[in-house]
Amino acid sequence: NAGVTQTPKFQVLKTGQSMTLQCAQDMNHEYMSWYRQDPGMGLRLIHYSVGAGITDQGEVPNGYNVSRSTTEDFPLRLLSAAPSQTSVYFCASTTTWGVTDTQYFGPGTRLTVL
Amino acid sequence: SQQGEEDPQALSIQEGENATMNCSYKTSINNLQWYRQNSGRGLVHLILIRSNEREKHSGRLRVTLDTSKKSSSLLITASRAADTASYFCATDNYGQNFVFGPGTRLSVLP
Description:
The structure holds two protein chains of two kinds. Chain A has no helices and eleven strands. By secondary structure, chain A is mostly beta strands. Chain A starts with a strand and ends with a strand. By secondary structure, chain B is mostly beta strands. Chain B is globular, with a radius of gyration of 13 Å. Classes of the chains: A mainly beta, B mainly beta.
């Protein structure tokens, strides 16, 4: 199993550009989530999904969209990039919420918005 | 707002010494987890302790949970240089998501 994969690893955008961060898992996990990590801070939840077709907002959802058309994929879209979105983004998954609760993290995408 | 807060923010010890870091949280929880993050990498799950447990061990790791004080501690015994990393606690606050603290940066000096 590849686990949780994320692409790209690095990305530089200009203010106002849009892009999609890809996340995929091959563990048949129902629960997937996106976090951002800023220097000196813990991870903050952006959006999460408890299954295909179901998404919900986390702590910092503004400026981001998600969809979950399949169990495996959970892309994160930046609609109009802003310098405040410069961060490291992590995707994570777990089997089913409330069963094991152990999250498996991808390697991260380092995003810089100029 | 962050549910968990780790203490200290940074810790520097010699190889072979024990490292203790603490986590405090604000609301009732179902479980609390500790994760490790090596520089530039994703988080790796270390240990999960449920609200009805008081202590849990995994190799050189020992986690305690005191729900009355809303706090947890992570002890790493006989530390190694490879233990150098940031350590985060995460709580589930009975919702469908986790809340992470800002982490403790551990440096183990050879």
